[in-house]
Amino acid sequence: MNNCRLCNGEINEIYAGQIRAGSFGKKTDESYNVLQCKNCEAAWLDPFPTIDYQNSDYRMDYTGSADSEDYIAIFDHEQTPRINRIGIEKFRDKVVADLGCGGGSFLDAIKGVAKKTIAIEPYTGYHESLKRRGHHVYSYTKSIEEEKVDIVISFGVIEHTDDPVTYLKDAFSILKKGGKIYLETDNLNDFLMKADIKEFKEFFYRTAHNWYFNNNSLTELFNNVGFNNLKPGFRHGYDLSNTLCWLRDRKPTGLNKIDYISNVCDKVWRDFLEQNEFAELLHFSATK
After folding, report:
1. DSSP secondary structure string, 134-147?
2. What is the DSSP letter of 288?
3. CB-based burial of residue 11 (10 Å sphere; 0-12 exposed, 13-18 middle, 19+ buried)?
4. Which residue, among 208, 183, 185, 221, has the nearest Cα to 97 in the 3D structure?
5. Quick one: pLDDT at residue 40?
6. Which candidate, 231, 236, 240, 226, places its Cα nearest to that of 281?
7. What is the DSSP letter of 114?
8. What is the dihedral of CA 21, 23, 24, 26, to 10 degrees?
9. What local confidence, expressed as pLDDT, does residue 146 receive?
């Protein structure tokens, strides 16, 4: 492809090489290119992967299990900082739809506050558990045949889609007038990407992520779909030791691996990254 998939602008290559093909340590045999538009700044994999998210193979490759209980054990801890960032009060008596909810950790966390929780998840292996926990379950957004929703949640999903414009339009279509969307996705301008570490790029780019966004490209996407009151933002969950260990060891090490770094130092580090657009995640909200 010689032009941008989204805006038809000119493109250039920003990466060429192996990428992650599942959990850490699994890499592709073949080389991939990452192409970026000079105009809208969106980036994507070339060749463009095709993944069947209805199949359990994807879950096995990336989390080591296709079981809903294992999903909950892995991802429950990620929900507290998300709720703290948004505010639990935003969900009081609201109809909330989580697009690509996986095993439903976020919906479980707000179920006692929200009026109704709608789980949209293509992998049917999670459906029985989601229904048992009281969520209204659908495979795709277009399957919803009930009232419009107050809030759409999209955490770590838009990068997986074939067409992010259609994905956002579908989210827009199920929202009430004045309804809100909260969306997170990986930040192409992550500090460690700026550090130009080969091993981090092989880890960051992955076969499950078709698309890569920065502040500018995601802002343009939201505006083109027709959302209002757009509030771009950033969120960083890792500590300073994670960054230093990447620089030293060239591999992911998790949290708190350098025990003499204080909580105050970690907060300053996170604040610096979020304020200067170098955080790991883009955290956007907008209104229909």
Report:
1. T-EEESSGGG--SS
2. -
3. buried
4. 183
5. 96
6. 236
7. S
8. -40
9. 67
Q: Which residue type, as a one-letter code, is found at position 59?
A: R
Helix/strand/coil (H, E, C) string of 33-100? EEEEECCCCCEEEECCCCCCCCCHHHHHHHHCCCCHHHHHHHHHHHHHHHHHHHCHHHHCCCEEEEEC
Q: How many CA atoms lie within 13 A of 152 on its CB side?
A: 32
128 φ/ψ angles, rounded to the nearest 5 degrees: -60, -45
Per-residue pLDDT of 93-102, as tens digits, reads 999 999 999 9
Task: Tell which residue, 250, 161, 201, 251, has the closest CA to residue 16.
Answer: 201
Quote the pLDDT of residue 54.
77
Whose tokens are 């950033």? That residue is: 234
Tokens 């500090």 -> residue: 191
Rounded to the nearest 10°, the torsion over CA 90, 91, 93, 96 is: 130
Q: Which residue has the tokens 């030293």?
A: 248
What pTM was estimated for this model as a whole? 0.94
Q: In angstroms, rounded to a whole number, what is the distance separating the alpha carbons of residues 47 and 212?
A: 14
Quick: pLDDT tens for 209-238: 999 999 999 999 999 999 999 999 999 999
Question: Which regions in the chain score pLDDT beneath 50?
Answer: none
Closest residue by Cα to residue 56 from 45, 46, 64, 47: 64
| The dihedral formed by the CA atoms of 221, 227, 230 and 232, expressed in degrees to the nearest 10 | -30
